[in-house]
Amino acid sequence: MMQITASPKSIASYRPYWAQRFGVAPFLPMSRDEMAQLGWDSCDIILVTGDAYIDHPSFGMALVGRLLEAQGFRVGIISQPDWHSAADFKRLGKPNLFFGITAGNMDSMVNRYTSDRKTRSDDAYTPHAEPDKRPDRAVIVYAQRAREAFSDATLVIGSIEASLRRIAHYDYWSDKVRRSILPDSKADLLIFGNAERALVELAHRLAKGEKIETIRDLRGTAFMTSAGWLPSAEWAEADSITVDTPGAAHVHTDPYAMEPQRQTAAPSPNPGEGTSQSIRIVPKAERLAARRDARAHTVVRLPDYEVVKDDPILYAHASRTFHLESNPGNARALVQRHGDRDVWLNPPPIPLTTPEMDYIYGLPYARQPHPGYGDAKIPAWEMIRFSVNIMRGCFGGCTFCSITEHEGRIIQSRSEQSILHEIEEIRDKTPGFTGVISDLGGPTANMYRLACKDPKIESSCRRLSCVYPGVCENLNTDHAPLIQVYKKARALPGIKKILISSGLRYDLAVRSPEYVKELVTHHVGGYLKIAPEHIEEGPLSKMMKPGIGSYDKFKAMFDKYSKEAGKEQYLIPYFIAAHPGTSDVDMLNLALWLKRNNFRLDQVQTFLPTPLALATAMWHTGKNPLRKVSDTSETVTIIKSGTQRRLHKAFLRYHDAKNWPMLREALKRMGRADLIGNGQRHLIPGWQPAGDAARAPGLRGKKKVPVFRDR
After folding, report:
1. Which has the closest alpha carbon to 667: 679, 685, 680?
2. CB-based contact 619:638 (threshold 8 Å)
3. What is the pLDDT of residues 183-242, one digit of tens each?
4. Using N-to-C axis directions, what is the helix angle for 548-564 and 513-522, rounded to 10°?
5. What are the residues facing 437 on neighbouring strands?
6. Are 98 and 41 in contact (CB under 8 A)?
7. Helix axes 312-324, 614-621, angle to 10 degrees
8. Beta bridge partners of 576
9. Intra-chain end-to-end CA distance of the chain, in Å
10. Which of 109, 165, 398, 471 could cross-link to 181 by cystine, CB 3.0-4.6 Å?
11. Strand locations in 83-152, DSSP E?
C-alpha cells in the first residue's frame, strides 16, 4: 500500500552514499577536466540550469547541488547549455542516477519577456547580462535535449517553471490553456515546491536500486500514470465537484468545515424492529482519526485538460480546487486526465524544520561565481552577494504572486546562530565586502518565525491567506525574534550597517511599533520598499491585499521614527496597473493619490499573468475563484486590450509628458476634463511641450521628491 507520510525523515539523517569519500568539491564541476581533477569517472547526478552557476545558497542549483553532495553524491552542473542540439548535454556524460533539469531561479518566459510580451534586452542571471542564453520554455527544451543525448537516462524536472506548470494552466504568452509540463517534457518525475526533501529521498532510493517508475509516494512530486490508476485498494477517488461545486449550487457536506459534520442516521423502514441491537457511540477522536485516514487515501480528480482548455467556468473551478488543496497538513492528492493518461500530484512537501534550514544554509558554498566566468559581471550575483536569506514561504496569499504556489504558506525560518554565522562568512570570505549587509530577508522581510499559534489549527486550515481580509486572530505576529536578529547582526565586529531590502508586509509591521522603530532607526538606507499595489477596494479585493488605511498607519509610524532618528527617509510604494478587477476610474483615483502624496514613479509594473496564480485564473476566465464559481457567480473586470493596459500604466506615470495626450483623451471620455489644466488641482496640463522626451514642465520648480524604480 502506498503511504504518503506526514512525518518525514530529517534530510540530515541519511547515511551518506559511498562516493562521499571523494570529499567536497571547491566548485561543482562543469567539465570533464574538473571531474578528472576531483578523481571522478562519472557523475551520479547532473543538474541542468538556465542560469550561470553561482555557488551561493540564493541560487537553486548551488543549494540543491551542495545538498546532494553532502549526501555523498557526485554532482555535476551543466549551466546555460546550447539547446540547439544534444551535444552540450553530453558534456559530463550520462549520470548514474538522474538528470535534474530546471529553467533556473526564474521562469524562462518571465525572464525573457515583459508583461507586454516584448523581448527583454538583458538577463540578470547571465554573464554580462547577455540575453538569449536560454530558450523559451526551457524545462521542456532541456528535457528533450537530455533525452536525445541519453535515451535511457532518468529525467527529473523541477524549479519554479515546472512547479507552476504541473497541471493544465493558462499560458499568457501563447494565450491558451496548455497541458501539464509533464507530457510535454516527457520527464519521469516532476518535483514541485521546495525540492530538498523529495530530492534527497529520491537520490538515495535510486542509489539503492529502486526504479523511478515505482517511486510514487514522495510528497511534492508529480508523474504520469495510466488513466484511473490508484495506488492500492485503500485509495478512493473523489470528483472535484464534491470539494467545490461549479455551476448550480447543490446542498452537500461543507468541505471547508474545521470539524466533521455529524451525520443523522436514516430512520428504520420498520420502526420497532431490531431495537435489541447494540449501538456503539463512536468517540470523537476515533471519528477524526477515521476522517484523517480517509483524506490521506483520497485523490481529488480535477476536470480533464481537454475540458478546462475550452471551458472557463471549469478552469476557474479547477484553479480554486487546486489552491484549496495546498496546505501540507490536510491537502489531498490531485489527478487530472490528459488524453488517455493521468497527471498525478502528490500532496505538497512538509516544510523544513529550523535545524534542516540551518543544515542547508551551512553547507560549504564557495559564495561566488564559478571561476570559468572570469571577471564577467553577473547582475543577479552583484545584487545578492552581500545579502542573507533568513526564511522562505509566504502566508500573504496575494493572488498575483507565485511564491505561495512554489514555496508554500508556512514560514520556514533559520536559527539566529545560522544567520549570524553566514554574515560572518560574508565578512570573511566575500571579495569586495565593505561592511554593509544589503539585506536580511526573504520573500517578505518581516515574516521571520511568524506562524499559527496552534499547530492543529494550522494543519486543518484551508484559508488562502493569513492576513486577508484581516490578520487572523490565530496568527502569532510577534516581531521580537526578528528584532533580536537585527540587533545581534549589527553588533558583529566588522559590520557597519545591516539594510533591509526585501519587501515589507506593513499590515504586520504596524502590530509591532518596536519593530518599526528598530527598522527605521537602524536598517533603512534612505528608502524602504513596501507594496500597497493599489488604493481602491475593487482591485485590492481581487489581489487579497489590505486597504490603504494600513499603509497610512505604517507611514505615520515610519515618519515619526525617522524624525526621532534625525533621518530623511522615504517609502518606496509599489503599484500594479491593469490587475483584474481594476477599472479606469480606479486608476484615475490612484493617480490623484500619487499626485497628492508627491510620488512620481519611474518604471511601473503592469499585471503579468503567471501560470497557476489565482489572478491569472481571473484574467483568463473573467470569474472570481476566491468564491464558488458558476455561470452566475461574480465576474471580474479584465483589462486585456493593449490600449487600455497602456492607459492604466500611463495613470501611474501621470507626470510623464509622453503620457499626457492619452490621459487627456481618457479624462474627457470619463467626464473628468476638469482635471486638465495648469493648477495644483489638475492632474495633467492642457498643453504639450515640444519633443517626446521633454520633461513635464508642470513639475519644474516643485519640491524635490524621490523618483522610484519598480520591480
Report:
1. 685
2. yes
3. 999 999 999 998 999 999 999 999 999 999 999 999 999 999 999 999 999 999 999 987
4. 50
5. 498
6. no
7. 170
8. 605
9. 48
10. 165
11. 98-101
State the alpha helices, DSSP H only, in 430-581.
Answer: 455-460, 480-490, 506-509, 513-522, 537-543, 548-564
Pairing of strands 412-413, 391-392: antiparallel
Please state the separation of Cα 468 from the chain's center in Å: 18
Q: What is the DSSP letter of 452?
A: B
Reading the block at residue 694, the C-alpha cell is: 521633454
Grid coordinates in use for 619? 484574467
Side-chain-side CA neighbours of residue 138 (13 Å) = 29
Sheet with 527-533: strands ordered across: 527-533, 570-577, 605-606
For 633, the 3-state DSSP assignment is: coil
Beta strands in 376-442 (DSSP E): 387-389, 391-392, 412-413, 436-437, 439-441
The total of other beta-carbon atoms located within 10 Å of residue 460's CB is: 16
Helix 642-652 and helix 660-669, axial crossing angle in degrees, nearest 10:
100
How confident is residue 285, by pLDDT bands cut at 50, 70 and 90?
low
Instruction: Give the position of cell 499568457.
Output: 172
Please, what is the average pLDDT of the chain?
91
Q: What is the 3-state secondary structure (H, E, C) of 209-225?
A: CCCHHHCCCCCCEEEEE
CA separation for the pair 523, 544 (Å, rounded): 28
DSSP state of 432: T
On whether the CB atoms of residues 312 and 623 are closer than 8 A, the answer is yes
Strands 176-178, 236-239: parallel, antiparallel or unpaired by DSSP? Answer: unpaired
Number of H helices, E strands in the chain: 24, 25
Retrieve residue 257's grid coordinates.
468545515
In which band, very low, low, confident or very high, does the pLDDT at 298 lie, cut at 50, 70 and 90? Answer: very high
User: Where does 118-168 show beta strands of DSSP type E?
Assistant: 155-157
Per 3-state DSSP, the chain is made up of helix, strand and coil in percentages (nearest 5) of: 35, 15, 50
